[in-house]
Amino acid sequence: MSITASLSYHAGRTPNCHALVFEEQRISWRDLDREINRLAGFIAGATPRGGGVALHLPTSPALALLFLAIARAGREALVLDPDSPAATSRAILAQLSPALIVSFDARFAGETIVLADPLLPFAQVASVLGAPTDPGLVCEPDALTPFYVGFTSGSTGFPKGYRRHHRSWTESFRHDAIEFGITADDVILAPGTLTHSLFLYALVHGLNVGARVILCRRFRPDATARLIESEQATVLYGVPTQLQTTIKAAGVVPLASMRWILSSGAKWPVGEREALRCLFPNARFAEFYGASETSFMTVAKADEGSPVTSVGRAFSGAVVTIRDRAGRCLPAEKAGYVFVESPFLFMNYACGEASDLLRHGDAMSVGDIGFLDSQDFLHLVGRASRKIVTSGKNVYPEEIERVLERHPGIAFAAVLGAPDSSRGERLVALVHLRADVSLAASQLISHLRDVLPLYKVPRVYANVPDWPLTRSGKTDFNGLHQAWMAGAITQRLL
Question: Where is coiled-coil annotated (predicted)?
Fold first, then answer.
């Protein structure tokens, strides 16, 4: 079964209902299925079976339709970030040599189709590409056929391309239904870019169950709040920074249609839960932890009693274990590598390095360190690649960051290791203070000392007013480290 197998069923069941919304544009189920078929026929005729098709496009009707068509045709979509440097995109294309490139940029070499208008309406994409009006029968791809290569940052700076087959997502859909029960009656809002796998998954999963899916070209908190109201959205996907800014932009009128808020990418701040409840009084909240390579690993639902310091219990279909580097399972409360076994795991890397990836049998780890408590809730300690060694002791900065972010005056925190002649590395804490907040280093030291041993308490603190975020809404730790080492962060807290 492929990720698009159910679309024809929904087209027959509710042909005239809206399946997909992009800004002012809408497309019905019948038209969506027809346009995907046309484009799948075009892709099948233009590329060899199993060939790759690179999509270098902004979030748009063209990107959504082409991604689905490539999957239906049994080909592999390479979803490139159009906001990445052109040199990075060219390097990826040189490594992967796709059979076809669809881009708005004519500078790419090879078999490139240039869409002069990347924001073509749904109804024009197939015709502009010269797709046949009657493509005939497009063969259903095998469940283990690769359909997607996404890209995530690698430790060398060159993106890692992770490859997935259809079954990894169709199994996710099956277990997603157990956890969240999303159905054809739902309206799903995915307000982020489709180069982010969270929102691409939201699109495909929503269509798979027959829900109406709303896409946005770019995330804007005010537009997100308006769309929830105007479209009566019932499910919202987002990363914490997006959800927090949406709450601020929405005002005080409750958005009562929402029944699920699904958050991923970082831990939800404990102090923001009340604001979430006030704006979405009828919604359940869940945050899930995973990685590009693993997909869902754990889920923490607000009404299931997950400890605030944990990332929840194992997601349906996943088995989470803590092991040492040799693969031996460790007891409860003992920290080690977080491993997962599930049908959601990726196939392999299409490009880029993966020094943190560990495999033991069917279990996989991406290098995160954590422990399971006596109730089988997972607590993350940190990432092996971010480990700091100071005075001979191992420190995982995420542990310190989580405590700092529990302070009511701090919105974001990042702890770095800076070279030190006597300690090896010294801890430096960078924070983003909330509006109208002033803090001294001594106050933060006292806050940390209530929870952490002395060797985990930084002595150097600085405020960063313009907090850098990655495209996926996460803290840009590499950018902060470079800025600190260059002396560009000057607001020291004394």
Answer: none
Q: How far apart are CA 318 and CA 364, in angstroms?
A: 11
In CATH, the architecture of 387-492 is 2-Layer Sandwich (3.30)
| Tens digits of residue pLDDT in 261-286 | 999 988 888 778 899 999 999 999 99
Q: Which amino acid is at 259?
A: R
Burial (0-12, 13-18, 19+ Cβ within 10 Å), 155: middle
**β-pairing, 146-152 with 76-79?**
parallel
Q: What is the DSSP string of 296-323?
A: EEEEEETTTT--TTS--EEPTT-EEEEE
Domain boundaries, the chain: 1-164, 387-492
Number of other residues whose CB lies within 10 A of the CB of residue 157: 9
Given pLDDT bands bounded at 50, 70 and 90, which one contains residue 98? Answer: very high
Q: Using one digit for the tens of pLDDT, what is the confidence trace for 195-232?
A: 999 999 999 999 999 999 999 999 999 999 999 999 99
Residue 146 near residue 163 (C-beta atoms within 8 A): yes
Compute φ and ψ for 92, nearest 5 degrees. -65, -45
Contacting residues for 142 by C-beta, under 8 A, at least 6 apart:
74, 166
Assess contact for 412 and 467: CB atoms under 8 A.
yes
Q: What whole-number distance in Å separates Cα of residue 120 and Cα of residue 456?
A: 53
Domain 1-164 sits in CATH at: 3.40.50.980
pTM, rounded to two decimals: 0.89
